[in-house]
Amino acid sequence: MSETVNDKKEVRVWIDGCYDMVHFGHANALRQAKALGDKLIVGIHNDAEITKHKGPPVFTQEERYKMVKGIKWVDEVVEDAPYVTTLETLDEYQCDYCVHGDDITTTVDGYDTYHLVKTAKRYREIQRTQGVSTTDLVGRMLLMTRNHFQQGESEYSVGKDDNWLDKKSAMPFGAIQAKPSKLGQDHAARSPWTGCSQFLPTTQKINQFSNGKPAEPGDKIVYVAGAFDLFHIGHLDFLEKAKEQGDFLIVGLHTDHVVNQYKGGNYPIMNLHERVLSVLACKYVNEVVIGAPYEVTKDLIEHFSVDVVCHGRTIISEQHGDPYEIPKKMGLFKIIDSGNDMTTEKIVQRIIINRLDFEKRNNKKEEKEIAIYEAMQRTTKVAEKCG
């Protein structure tokens, strides 16, 4: 008797990692992994394991667990997942196979963390998202570079920012005046995985992240706006509360220029294209307005049939007037308390305060990857000669 659709075995996919400073590269890996099966189970390493094998994480394990649970493609999260993926782990969670990107992850002793599942042929590989890594983001904060939101003819260039910091820009206390380095900022970075190749946005990538579903008739439309830079646990908690105010949540993202005007320094740390994907990956978000106006206008409210405009308890910049003046007059404005006071600035301060540890971590990771990459190159050359 042929197998019916209802009898078809559910394919459970395992993927694991640190998921520190969860960014759109992590989200894209989870999206690709989910496409290989029916249910996606995500294992997340604890702080002690990460510190042992890679160096200190930026976010705590509790923050990382919650962030991954907020990504739309994730079905289950396994806390305290072992750093080396074992067959016992796959069996315990009834997973058919393990998925990982095409970069190499090793233990502190230099062993491939996936060697056991690879040997057992229970391993699938996906393409790593080019142009972003936690190492690169940490480097942007440590060096206070500005080349990640170039405009005009330099928008897609890759290279060191010669004018590292605008003389009029504010530099957080303890930040390092940028200088040539190997923190994934430019061509001097030697690792093929942590070295940053500029992220190139495409409509296909946006479509892959978007659910593409419009609001249903009768849905209560909620609108929020901001930078949503370095998408973090504070943003996640706020968006969860905002979504509770209605049925369809629209997030307006300000342009890099506008964000820089009200935040200064080298903000935003992530450019508009990167921030769009990070926000779209959140399970509470239905739609994103790319380059939303700073002032919430009547035209915008009417165009999207907005029923309520929300803002958190962060200070509203009124350098050019109150951006919420119109929704306030229309009786649509509401302040919501997410109960979380995390901000992008606090993350930057975490990095700066612990900058020596993070520099050491980044350099250590790159040196390990260089050694592995060079060994792979030598093996390839030997194989080509023998062939």
UniProtKB/TrEMBL annotation:
GO terms for biological process: phosphatidylethanolamine biosynthetic process. Pathway: Phospholipid metabolism; phosphatidylethanolamine biosynthesis; phosphatidylethanolamine from ethanolamine: step 2/3; Lipid metabolism. Gene3D superfamilies: HUPs. One of its GO terms (molecular function) is ethanolamine-phosphate cytidylyltransferase activity. InterPro entries: CCT, Cyt_trans-like, Ect1/PCYT2, Rossmann-like_a/b/a_fold. It comes from the Eukaryota. Its EC number is 2.7.7.14. Keywords: Lipid biosynthesis, Lipid metabolism, Nucleotidyltransferase, Phospholipid biosynthesis, Phospholipid metabolism, Transferase. Pfam families: CTP_transf_like. Residues 15-138, 224-332 form the Cytidyltransferase-like domain. This is ethanolamine-phosphate cytidylyltransferase. It comes from Chironomus riparius.
